[in-house]
Specification:
The complex is a heterodimer of chains A (802) and B (292).
Chain A: H1 2-16, H2 42-53, H3 56-72, E1 76-79, E2 86-89, E3 97-100, H4 101-125, H5 130-133, H6 139-143, E4 165-172, E5 178-184, H7 191-204, H8 206-211, E6 213-214, H9 218-231, E7 238-243, H10 251-261, E8 264-267, E9 271-274, E10 277-282, E11 285-294, H11 317-322, E12 327-329, H12 346-354, E13 365-367, H13 371-379, E14 384-388, E15 403-404, H14 405-411, H15 415-422, E16 426-430, E17 435-441, E18 444-459, E19 462-465, E20 470-473, E21 489-497, H16 523-555, H17 562-573, H18 584-598, H19 606-625, H20 630-653, H21 658-682, H22 691-698, H23 702-708, H24 715-724, H25 732-745, E22 750-751, E23 754-755, H26 757-770, H27 779-801
Parallel strand pairs in A: 3-21, 7-8, 7-11, 11-12
Antiparallel strand pairs in A: 1-2, 4-5, 4-18, 6-21, 9-10, 10-11, 13-16, 14-15, 14-16, 17-18, 18-19, 18-20, 20-21, 22-23
Chain B: E1 2-17, E2 20-24, E3 35-45, E4 50-55, E5 61-67, E6 71-84, H1 100-105, H2 129-138, H3 145-159, E7 161-162, H4 173-179, E8 181-182, H5 184-197, E9 202-209, E10 227-233, H6 235-238, E11 240-244, E12 249-250, E13 255-261, H7 264-267, E14 270-273, E15 280-290
Parallel strand pairs in B: 7-8
Antiparallel strand pairs in B: 1-6, 1-15, 2-5, 2-14, 3-6, 4-5, 9-10, 9-13, 10-11, 11-12
Helix pairs in contact in B: 2-5, 3-5, 4-5
Classes of the chains: A alpha+beta (802), B alpha+beta (292).
Chain lengths: 802, 292
């Protein structure tokens, strides 16, 4: 041990004399931290010397802080493939990439020009088609392009622009200049992850971040938010992020962006088109939507006019676009700009439209639908990557559809013949290498290839480039761009100034303070909240009964005692099998709660989400390990505690507004049902021995009973306490009281001065039960009450969730 | 020829549905030099809550209808009077197959009539190697594009059995090809894929067909249904030509065009999105009656 420390100390001494601490760029490859002469670039010096001063423990703690932030914030992306789809934690490369603001200004100018050019191209494709007519864009690349959406031809965007938010993948070549590897115009993802990368990275290097003049990201988002706000045609229009839903790999980001910018998070099913206007179904009725920031692919947006197999779209949305009543960001059909073969024609189109060269060139591309270009690709095949012309994915990220020319040569493929047959379906692209940037690999800085994702937003003052973004870091040291596959990591990008930077925040200035009430709750969100409440309460009910059952099972001399048998039958009717200590149906129940919660991740805290996940994981573990009897009793107690943890987090933290009311009503209805059913079954005169005590235990009312009634448990006192006591939070009457309170505060409780059917039924049930006495609570009454509560749930769904 | 056309499409829903939005493409188009819509209208029962008329990318008249109230059946009725001229079949001006690509490349347009829309695969008609092999075997050395089209039309007609039970609207061209059975939609789809595999632009035509009554017999009213055939591009001078593989004839005054598209999906008579938990039945009745 001592010897090892000495070796480390010696190593440290040796590196102290080296400003780069042993970091070396790869020969012939540009590096972000070192200039071509091997000197540390000025913007990196502070970070590098700080890193040099940190010992391994300090650094490990810092990285752990960043990772913990991401975990606690619930940052994840959904990974496909393998045996099952799963949520993966976000792979942060802790060392940021630092770029000088002067250099960034050049990159930004290039990207602004590019965004402007792309706007002109897409407007032409869905408009006049001059590019095709004048021979600048081959007609096949439009007409045979699956991204060309014919129903959108001639539809002018309501606000005059097709593109509002784009991203670009850029890389730096060996000569130090930047190249555009691909354009993202369809539904660019990653901006939210860039924000989270920033927060996580500043957790690791808060001291450095404070000392370094790093451009902030908030101003960029704020400007874009304000621009979208300004696009509304009517003051009561909503602005929403339109997500394909929870199954999407970047759903977390959709929820995050929506929450960050204060927009609604909607799915196609939330929307309907009425009179040429897009409306969101809310619990207060249909409300107009003026701007949709779309994160689903264009073709899926409208099953009527676009992809007819889409289940995530809104029928009629194209009609609304034609009517000019809604702005969709970016316009439907913008994805055509991502077509790989388009890169071949951009230089000439740029000269045509803007009368200048591209400031930031794309990687050299040749479309093989033309003879001379095909010959060029065939003649220089060893310097080419060849892939599908109509692909909208960059060649390094297309699931291996693109091949290196050298591989073709080795295979003995006749390239010219292959290109002749494939022709217009293929493009050749120059093989490019990327620059490297330092990553922390096995205890030291090592050069890793990187590309940058940069974001552009159209604001009222024109295009703005996000001062930052995120860097994709390759996992190995192969700098060929084609080697950049999924599985690498992502790093924050710091644009560094030598002067103090403006510190914007998205929080409004104090003088403009207003207190906004949350907007109308979408019906689908209300539905998920209501069912989350019901499933959670259903799980709790089952857990309580099972715990009481196993407690008695453990102590029972006779496992066939009537009470156990009776409760077993009762549970069997609810599809709960007592032969399984943690029954399948209980797990299914918790999963349903998790599913409902997953659909409304933007509505409650990451803590609640983690608590619910923990409950699910623990229940699964117990399902395999737990034995009947004491072991199960103990397990149920743990699960109940975890469940109470979740409920407590929600109860303590959730804003008391419409969403909360639906969640609560779900819980009250389910709890009322649970108690009504139990009492109907177990409180009658022929109940088996011990039933009343068991009821009190399930109803968590043993102590109260002892205090309130000066007698042994009996049918009447149990009924009084568990059915009719307005102060017992587990009694049926208590639930109806609470439902009544919440219902009065829901939208449309009164319609034209009259009670809604749902309100009326709540009142009827409440007063009906309030006037009952214990003697009158017969099994028939309970049966009727059970049906009434189910009906109340149906009425709520009809009134608010349709 | 002047025709009066009556079409009735009815849907019956097992479980009543609360609403729905449909796109209807059943009204014959006016196509210069081919046919003229004298008068035409579409009616629906129940009456839609909203109705919008438009013309789609391929210039087909399109009606969008929206229902808000609960209904258990839907009837769409189209009535039209149409003046139809036969396509002008001149001498064969079409190039040999090898000459087509350069004529296609010289066509710098993506408007609705541009052949470029009809060369590549379309949503319902992906490439099908077995149909491509079939087409290559038919296309002989030195044949003109029109000769190839005619030969494929004849072969599809000969090799396939007209069978209303064998396929559904969702049957793919490759499946129909394997079965060698189907209805007009399948015949047309197979022929389109065959032509495209040779680089010949080919599209789907939906419409009505007047079935000529046998001599001395009464015309069978209501026996006709909506029909489909093929049009393909024969080069700059040859233009578009329509062939009917179900009957192995060029489209004539017996063929009344409703719409042009790349495949059935572009011109399906009724596309609907409705929330329904039950099944539905559908019926179609067509009368195409010559006037005067």
């Amino acid at each position: 041990m001592a010897k090892k420390q000495t070796a480390q100390a010696e190593e440290k001494d040796r590196l102290d004399g080296d400003p780069a601490f042993g970091y070396r760029a790869l020969p012939g490859i540009a590096d972000e931290m070192l200039d071509p002469d091997g000197n540390v670039r000025p913007v990196w010096q502070r970070l590098l010397s700080a890193l040099g001063r940190m010992d391994e423990t300090d650094l490990a703690n810092r990285f752990a802080r960043a990772d913990r932030y991401l975990r606690d914030a619930g940052v994840f992306y959904r990974a496909y493939g393998g045996r099952e789809n799963s949520e993966r934690s976000w792979p942060l490369s802790h060392i940021p990439v630092l770029i000088d603001e002067a250099e960034w200004a050049v990159v930004s100018q290039g990207l602004i020009q590019r965004a402007e050019l792309l706007e002109r191209v897409v407007a032409d494709i869905y408009g006049e088609n001059r590019l095709v007519q004048e021979g600048l864009l081959p007609p096949a690349l439009v007409a045979s392009n699956p991204e060309f959406l014919r129903p959108l031809v001639g539809v002018k965007p309501a606000d005059g622009h097709f593109l509002h938010f784009c991203s670009f993948e850029i890389g730096r070549g060996p000569d130090g200049n930047w190249w555009v590897l691909s354009d993202r115009t369809e539904a660019p993802s990653g901006a939210g992850f860039a924000l989270e990368n920033r927060v996580a990275t500043t957790r690791a290097f808060s001291d450095l971040y404070a000392e370094t003049h790093v451009h902030r990201l908030a101003g960029f988002f704020g400007a874009f938010r304000d621009t979208l706000q300004a696009r509304k045609q009517y003051p009561d229009d909503r602005i929403a992020v339109l997500s394909p839903g929870i199954a999407n790999e970047t759903y977390f980001e959709h929820a995050y962006i929506a929450r960050y910018l204060g927009f609604m998070l909607l799915e196609g099913e939330d929307l309907t088109v009425v009179g040429g206007r897009v409306m969101v179904r809310t619990v207060a009725g249909l409300k107009p939507v003026g701007v949709l920031w779309r994160r689903l692919d264009s073709a899926f947006a409208d099953p009527l006019e676009l992809n007819q197999s889409s289940h995530i779209g809104t029928p009629g949305i194209v009609e609304a676009l034609r009517a000019g009543s809604v702005s969709i960001v970016n316009a439907l059909g913008s994805g055509i700009l991502e077509t790989r073969a388009f890169l071949a024609f951009m230089p000439a189109i740029c000269r045509h439209f803007l009368g200048e060269e591209q400031k930031l060139p794309s990687i050299a591309t040749w479309w093989c639908g033309q003879q001379s270009e095909r010959d060029n690709v065939a003649g220089n095949v060893e310097r080419m990557v060849i892939g599908p012309a109509y692909s909208t994915r960059p060649f390094f990220d297309d699931n291996g559809q693109s091949v290196l020319g050298t591989t073709l040569c080795e295979d003995g493929t006749s390239v010219s013949e292959w290109l002749g047959t494939g022709g217009g379906k293929l493009v050749g692209q120059e093989v490019v290498t990327l620059s490297t940037t330092p990553a922390w690999v096995r205890g030291r800085l090592a050069p890793r290839p990187m590309s940058l994702r940069v974001f552009a937003a159209r604001t009222r003052d024109g295009w703005q480039i996000m001062p930052g973004g995120f860097a994709r870091i390759g996992s190995g040291d192969d700098v060929a761009a084609i080697a950049m596959k999924a599985g690498g990591t992502a790093a924050d990008v710091w644009i560094v100034s030598d002067k103090p930077v403006e510190r914007t925040t998205l929080l409004p200035a104090e003088e403009s303070f207003t207190r906004n009430m949350p907007g109308s709750l979408p019906s689908r969100a209300a539905d998920n909240l209501f069912w989350l409440g019901r499933y959670i309460e259903r799980a709790e009910g089952a857990l309580r009964i099972l715990r009481a059952w196993h407690g008695r099972f453990a102590e029972a001399a006779d496992p066939k005692m009537p009470l156990l048998k009776d409760v077993t039958d009762y549970l069997a009717a609810l599809d709960i099998n007592t032969r399984q200590p943690v029954p399948d149906s209980l797990l299914a129940n918790i999963d349903s709660a998790l599913f409902s919660a997953g659909n409304i991740r933007d509505r409650f805290s990451p803590d609640g989400w983690l608590a619910l996940n923990d409950l699910s994981r623990t229940a699964r573990k117990f399902h395999v390990t737990v034995q009947a009897g004491d072991d199960a009793t103990h397990a149920m107690t743990i699960l109940l505690r975890k469940l109470a943890g979740f409920a407590g987090l929600v109860h303590e933290n959730m804003y008391r507004f419409t969403g909360w009311r639906f969640l609560s009503i779900g819980r009250y209805i389910e709890r009322g049902l649970h108690m009504t059913r139990l009492l109907g079954h177990m409180s009658g005169p022929e109940a088996p021995d011990g039933a009343y005590d068991m009821l009190l235990e399930i109803g968590d009312s043993v102590m109260t009973h002892r205090r309130r009634y000066n007698v042994n448990t009996a049918a009447l006192t149990v009924t009084d306490l568990l059915a009719l006591d307005p102060l017992n939070p587990r009694s049926v009457l208590y639930q109806l009281n609470e439902i009544k309170t919440e219902v009065e505060l829901l939208p449309n409780a009164f319609v034209n001065g009259q009670m809604s059917p749902f309100y009326r039924e709540t009142m009827r049930l409440h007063s009906g039960l309030a006037v009952m006495t214990p003697e009158t609570m017969t099994p028939t009454v309970y049966k009727q009450l059970e049906r009434d509560l189910e009906r109340l749930s149906d009425l709520l769904a009809q009134t608010y969730l349709g | 020829m002047l025709y009066d056309i009556n079409l009735k499409i009815t849907y019956g829903y097992e479980v009543p549905i609360a609403g729905g939005r449909h796109l209807v493409r059943v009204l014959p188009a006016s196509i210069p030099g081919r046919q003229r819509l004298v008068v035409g209208s579409i009616g629906c029962q129940p009456t839609p809550g909203e109705r919008v008329e438009s013309v789609d990318f391929f210039a087909n008249p399109t009606t969008s209808i929206l229902f808000r109230s609960v209904h258990d059946s839907l009837a769409i009725r189209m009535q039209a009077r149409v003046q139809v001229d036969a396509q002008a079949l001149t001498a064969d001006l079409t190039p040999p197959l090898a000459g087509l690509p350069s004529q296609l490349a010289a066509c710098w347009s993506v408007d609705a009539e541009s052949p470029h829309h009809f060369v590549g695969p379309s949503p319902l008609l992906p490439d099908a190697p077995e149909i491509a092999a079939y087409a290559h075997a038919i296309a002989g050395e030195g044949m003109t594009v029109r000769q190839i089209g005619t030969a494929i039309c004849e072969r599809v007609h000969r090799d396939f059995i007209y069978d209303t039970e064998a396929t559904t609207v969702n049957t793919t061209a490759a499946e129909a090809f394997k079965l060698k059975r189907g209805v007009c939609q399948d015949f047309a789809h197979v022929m389109i894929v065959a032509l495209r595999s040779l680089g010949i632009p080919a599209g789907y035509v939906s419409g009505f067909l007047r079935t000529l009554p046998p001599p001395g017999k009464e015309r069978l009213e209501g026996a006709d249904a909506m029909h489909a055939w093929v049009r393909f591009w024969c080069g700059t001078a040859g233009g578009w030509m329509e062939l009917d593989p179900t009957n192995n004839i060029p489209a004539s005054t017996d063929h009344i065009v409703v719409g042009h598209g790349r495949d059935y999906g572009d011109v399906a008579p009724v596309i609907g999105v409705l929330k329904s938990y039950g099944s539905h039945t559908t019926e179609q009745a067509v009368d195409v009656i010559p006037v005067g």
